[in-house]
Fold each of these.
Amino acid sequence: MYVIGPDVGLEALSNRAIDYTLLPGRWRLIYTTAPDVRPLLIADRPAPFQVGNIYQQFSDVEQGDVQNIIEFSIPMLLQKGTVEVRAKYDIRSPQRIRLMFQEAGVRNLSITDELELLLAPAILPRSWLNHQVLLALREAEVFVPLRARLPALFQSASTSLERNFGSDYLLTYLDDDTLIGSQTGSGGTFIFVRD
């Protein structure tokens, strides 16, 4: 799919500062040139990992929260699950925001009937342990921080500096229904529609 022409056309129509009041909400990714995301979008991905929709969800500017959300499934094991990367954002210019990644994790796991039968067979009485395992899988939410402590050499006794993993994001077009942006460096272009 070649989208460079239309996105350049929309960007040309929006030769002004972004109206950040339109940013809050859930945006579904429909196209990207980002090398770290394109492999996820391969439609005929072989088992065992299937990727569903990819979203970016922004809070209002005052809160400055953003989540990158990837829906996935693993046939025979998981009906669905969600990978989520949480970040903070702040406005750097009329068209640029800074993303500071905070943590990444997995949540909203829904196991398949086959896996549930394997863990707690229907022909046997379910024990307390079976119930606990099934409950733990249903409620599982695991997140790891995406911040690295700077070595002590670079810290004073009165500060506890942390380095946030982040990047700048250039918003080139935003209206009620469409968001086009690009990550600085070799991040690529992203086209979203409001969900």
Note: Residues 135 and 143 are 18 Å apart (CA to CA).
Amino acid sequence: MQGISKSRHVHLMDALLQLETLLGKECECLQQATEYRVDLENMHSNYERLLEELARQITNYEVMYSHVKIQFLGKKLKELKKEISVEMPGFPVLVQNIRIAYGT
């Protein structure tokens, strides 16, 4: 999936506006050109709004991810590492969890 090119969109809008000007009120295709232009403008506006929403969602996710990984998970794993001895049955699970959390 590719993003919508703003420059291509602007060029097409300009071309449709010029066509509308050239056609004047004499051609029945003027209405079709106008409808296409309005529809494309609405779709592009919706696309831009969705991109902004997606950017906010990504930012919120990254903030939460960092908080959970560093502030919560990291601290809890360090606490558990101090409390659990190597001989305890849960130690291998703890080590595995630490590796998963830190990608090592």
Note: The mean pLDDT is 86.
Amino acid sequence: MKYSPLSSAKVLLLALTAFAHFSCEKENNETPAPNPQARLTAKIDSVCRASMSDNTVPGMSVVVVKQGQVLFNKSYGVSNLQTQQPVTADTRFHTGSTNKAMTAIAVMQLVDRGLIQINRKVTEYLPDFRMADARYQDITVEHLLTNSSGIEYGFEEGGFADDALEQQVAKLANQQLRFSPGQGYEYANAGWSVLGLIVQRLSRLPYENYMQANVFQRLGMNNTTLAYWTPNALGGTQGYVLSNQNEVTPLAPFLNRGYGPAGMVISTSNDIGKYLLMLLARGRNSQGEQILSESSVQAILTPHVDAESEMGYPSIRYGYGWEVVNPGQGKAPYLAHGGAIGSMAAVFILDPNQQVGVGLLFNRVDYNKVPVADAIRELATSN
């Protein structure tokens, strides 16, 4: 997902809009918000409503978690302009490249089980892995997790055959590396396909089945799936684009099972809240079960390499599937990632220092939702 550069002015404007809207509501209402949390959620709601006011995004679902609890979970607009079905917390959206950090969880679970060492060569786990560039033999698992393998970006639409992942990885046999492994940064969807194939081979389960059983089910993410090809997988949600005439027009998402580990997850704001809470709880689900070791969670959230932001942030490093943002001015870093799949998108933000997570899911790719997510993070961490 490639976003336009962030506008801090947009973030500030949205935050100020929230305060202004909330102040007006308070003045016109004899009964003030009963507590600080209610005031905070009212401000977040104002930001969300302001971001939807131009009517160019049909529907959006927003979840905010803080200090181990769901602080805010609200939806706006419709999932389908034809049916006028309202968006709810259980409305399904494609979440695009936010999926990468979920694949990192699968990899690190296998690290926890002693099946993977991240500094070992990929060819140790995939002996049939080949590229046209002899330097591929030096690619490690960690290079793939940090987009520092030298593999190029990669994405095209494709089918959903059972061997789609193997087919996608096999295509790399004709490709050169952009740079020597570990000597640069290149956002590489194809590298995540290689990681997914490693998970598939070592677990002896199709990648999608592994994720369903070991990540989604254990987190109670009951409306989350990678099987986009199954009937009614989206539950009627339609994706849209903005035409040259500024008309909101339906468009099917760009899909390829071979890129499943890079960005084919379908999920809901209810489920994303559970996912964010697990990361903030250092690997524990809502029942207290440790689905990922604390050290593995730390590895995922730790910055490992200098990187170029896909979301327009001026200064980032990269963890395992997360951008680590340095906001400057003495403020602590936080994590973010976006995902877009043609006509649907998502933005996730995680601030472990403040124990805050934000998830936005929407059915038109709208780059202005990045500053919306940041404005919500600012509100949640400052109140």
Note: Residues 8-27 form the longest helix (20 residues).
Amino acid sequence: MRNCLVLSVSFTFVYTAYLAIQNLQSSLNQEANLGVVSLSVLYGTIIIFGTQAPIFIKFIGAKRVLVLAWVIHIIYTASNFYPTFATLIPSSALLGAIAGPMWTSQGIYITAAGEKYAALQGVSSEGALHAILSKFNGIFFMFYEITQITGNMISSFVLSASSYNTSSGVDHRICGPNDCPFVSAGNVTSKIEEPERHVVYILLAIFLSCNICGLLLTLFGLPHHTEVRGESTSVFKDMASCFKMSVDKRMLLLLPLFMAQAMAVGVLYADYTK
């Protein structure tokens, strides 16, 4: 149970920062659509490197993968202090490359913690073990879903100190996606007013502190587990097993749901949050 809580809290710290930054990317980095491009690179890299997760974990271990992931999250957050294509795109690619191994390591730790807890409780039946694993996953994702609340609350409180959020008495009787008071005739590109830069720096500093807290908690609070390194199999066998699973009929039937969710999330993060 302890390992489950340590892992959950460390993810809460890190993803409080990451999800809030993700929600603000398209608004804070509008120049040349840098924010949207960086998110596209990030998630595109996840697709490319996601199948290599077993190889990462086999060679460096699950805990080291998590520690490396948090270090890259720190780099990603730091790159937002000076967002350019030369800083934000490489850090986004790094973050995407480590995301697959990171989530796989999370699953390994939660499963290992559940199995250890079941052994301590003297549970032997498969049904009871599944109930414990469901409980541990429920605890973890409760903490994870909270991060959208905590991250957006921090963003709201900090940005409210900026003139970015001041009220205006002007009545703009305009409505609709192509009717914005900041656009001229013939141009449907919205101009979103950016907050003062020093306020953004304060916000990013808070998120950077959250990342560091998550790193320290994982580094000193989460033990190594030799059993989570996986079986001794060849790299090619690992890659073949991942490919075999990806073309499984049941997995292919889930693809339309994945694509629909991806489109909805893309609109939410890239456009709606503006």
Note: The first helix runs from residue 2 to 28.
